[in-house]
Every structure is written in structure tokens, then in C-alpha cells.
Design brief:
Strand order of the largest sheet: 3-2-1-4-5-6-7
Radius of gyration: 21 Å
Distance between the termini: 26 Å
Strand content: 15-25%
Number of helices: 13
Shape: globular
Length: 372
């Protein structure tokens, strides 16, 4: 099978990481995989001005931004400018996969030579009050002649709520068990929490940092380990006694997870929430808001689900885990590990492969002719 993934641009985001995992694994199964993307948009003068007055400084944009496709053998073409991707940019293939709401429109307009058309949707926009694309912008893309593949039942339910009983394939994310694995361990010598540092309001880093501040009133020695794809900003500064890892390698990240008593997941909304599974695979219980797949994953006992927009509730959950005996903590740690290891990329990739074959079958010319 010849497969093309169409990206808005390649980066170090979690969504791009999932696409890169599928691309690599499908290629390992013998398929021919090609990725095409725009370059990352550069901020305009207005954005630069707002960044300066907000204390973030002038935004530096390198010619090439790092991404999860770096140091892979996956064919990746970055077109010359920020514009829609067209037939001239895409090879003929069996199936072409949109990966973002804007790319869905581009893929829908490609000729049939470029392949049967799928739409891999990992999220749907930003909640009210948070800058970014809105649900009303996304809904029209669900009506395009594309077979939708998504990562969570709640998104499939949302799509069908607006579009009726259209074909939607649900394939939950998974965890790289060869990478995210650590031996059984005891609680840390000093109480330690961890988080992924992201400045986007939707990720809720501000909620987690406030929860740590509250928890430190009771446990002053509480440590924070954090990592992220960008350096901390003054507007969202990390507290004292924080160990921060800037752009750690994939091999370093499991050690960060495994050095914590609990991992904080504070998103205001999320498609899935891959760090939940990654932390759990490293035997670290998760304290999380009910975003993405968190309710299903955490409710199995490998952590504590907290109220949204409630740093006080998150702080109490942190304290609860820190007060567990070593035996109690190891029991929660084991449940977290068992939960995570039931979601494998081998299983997910097989399901994704099957879905792509179904897309090709569904969009065969003779079937399209019979349905018209």
C-alpha cells in the first residue's frame, strides 16, 4: 500500500508524534509511506509585537524547526511556502490521509490519483475563551468525502451528533512499551511530581503550577520535574526546586517519568492525552483533569481524577498520593502499569492498517459510481 500523510507542518507536538509512530510502523510492515507538509508559519509583526509587550520577547524562528520526523527514514517533503498542498506536491498513492482540519479541505480537493481519502482527527479545536480554531470551523470538514479515523469514543460521538450516522473508525492511542518501561520501584526519597511544560492555555500548565504552590504549603520540600519543547517563559515561570529538561530525547523522557511519585495532567481539553499512558507505563500514577481519555484511564485505579479548573482539588490529590505508604503507592503504581500496557502500538497499527484498507475499498471507483 502506498500511503501519504498530509500535515499542516511537522513539529514536536504530541499529535505529530502519533502520526510519526504510525508512519514508521506502517513502513516497517512493508508499506510505502510519504509525508508532505508546509513549513511552520512565521509570526507576523502584530504577533511579534504582542509577544514583546507580554514579556515573552521577540520570537526567533529557525529556518528548519525540529520535529518527530527528524532522524527517521520516512520520506518527508516540506513545500517551499505556507500555502495549501495540491496535486503537484503529492505522489500518486493508494490512500492519502489528512491530519488536521485545514488539511482535510486540501485532501478533499486532490485528484483520485492521489488515493482514497481519509481524515485522521486527533482533536477538534479549542474551548470557548481560548484562542485557536473553533468547533464551528471544524464541523464542515466532517461533511467532506473523507473517511474519518479518530482516537477516542467521545470524538466519534461528537462527530455523529453533528453529522448523523456517518462512518467513523475509533483507534485509541497507545504507548511505546519498548521505550516507556521501567522496573518496579519505591516512592522517591523526597516527594516528587512531574509535568509536561506547555504554554498553551488549553494544556493547563497554570493549573498544575498553582496546585504545586498550594501543596507546598503542606509539603515544602515537594520537588517538581518538568520537560518541554520550549524554554520556560516569564509569564508561566516554574517554581523553585524545579529540575527542567529542555527538549529531552525520547530515551531521556522515561527516566523523567520514573523519577516521580505522581505525574500531573492538567489539560482543559485534550483529544487523548498520551502523557497519561506514558507516565503509567513508567509505573507513575497520574493526577489528572477529566480531559481526553483521562476518565477511562485514571478511573481504573492508577491515579486520581480531579475536578477541572480546580488547583485546590489537584493539590489535595498530590498530597493524598504523597501520604500513601510505600506499599500503597506500589499498588497504585502497578495498576497504572497494568492499565498502560493494555494499549500497544502493535495493536493500534494493525487497526490503523485495516482502516486504511477499508478506506481504499470504500472509495473504489465502481463503488462511488454505484452510490451516486
Amino acid at each position: 500500500m502506498k500511503i501519504t500523510f498530509v500535515l499542516p507542518y511537522a513539529s514536536f507536538t504530541g499529535g505529530i508524534r502519533v502520526i510519526a509512530i504510525y508512519a514508521a510502523r506502517l513502513q516497517n510492515l512493508g508499506h510505502e509511506v510519504f509525508v508532505v507538509s508546509q513549513p511552520k508559519p512565521k509570526p507576523n509583526l502584530r504577533s511579534q509585537f504582542l509577544s514583546v509587550i507580554r514579556g515573552k520577547g521577540w520570537t526567533y524562528m529557525p529556518e528548519q524547526t525540529p520535529s518527530h520526523f527528524d532522524n527517521t527514514n520516512i520520506a518527508h517533503r516540506v513545500i517551499e511556502s505556507v500555502r495549501p498542498i495540491t496535486d503537484d506536491d503529492v505522489p500518486d498513492a493508494d490512500v492519502v490521509v489528512a491530519t488536521w482540519w485545514e488539511t482535510a479541505t486540501w485532501v478533499a480537493e486532490l485528484s483520485n490519483r492521489k488515493g482514497a481519502k481519509a481524515y485522521f482527527m486527533q482533536d477538534y479545536g479549542f474551548p470557548k475563551g481560548i484562542p485557536g480554531q473553533k468547533l464551528e470551523q471544524i464541523i464542515p470538514t466532517w461533511f467532506l468525502p473523507l473517511h474519518i479515523i479518530t482516537i477516542a469514543p467521545w470524538m466519534a460521538k461528537l462527530i455523529r451528533k453533528h453529522c448523523g450516522d456517518i462512518p467513523v473508525t475509533v483507534i485509541p492511542n497507545a504507548v511505546e512499551l519498548d521505550l516507556f518501561k521501567t522496573p518496579q520501584r519505591h516512592k522517591q526519597e523526597f516527594p516528587t511530581v512531574g509535568l509536561v511544560y506547555k504554554t498553551s492555555l488549553i494544556k493547563g500548565t497554570d493549573i498544575a503550577l498553582e496546585a504545586i504552590r498550594i501543596a507546598r504549603k503542606t509539603i515544602p520540600q515537594l520537588r517538581l520535574l518538568a520537560f518541554g519543547a520550549r524554554k520556560p517563559e516569564p509569564s508561566l515561570s516554574l517554581p523553585s526546586n524545579t529540575v527542567y529538561s529542555y527538549q529531552p530525547s525520547d530515551r531521556e523522557i522515561p527516566n523523567i517519568y520514573a523519577s516521580c511519585d505522581t505525574w500531573l495532567f492538567s489539560s482543559r481539553r485534550e483529544g487523548f492525552g498520551l502523557p497519561i499512558l506514558e507516565a503509567m507505563a513508567c509505573r507513575t500514577p497520574v493526577v489528572g483533569t477529566p480531559a481526553g481519555a483521562a476518565p477511562e484511564l485514571i478511573s481504573q485505579g492508577g491515579g486520581i481524577l480531579v475536578q477541572p479548573e480546580d488547583p485546590e482539588d489537584m493539590a489535595q490529590a498530590i498530597l493524598q498520593i504523597c501520604r500513601l505508604s510505600d506499599e500503597q503507592w506500589q499498588s497504585m503504581s502497578q495498576i497504572a502499569y497494568t492499565t498502560a500496557t493494555s494499549y500497544t502500538w502493535d495493536d493500534a497499527t494493525k487497526l490503523f492498517e485495516t482502516a486504511l484498507y477499508s478506506v481504499i475499498e470504500r472509495f473504489k471507483p465502481e463503488k462511488l459510481a454505484n452510490s451516486s
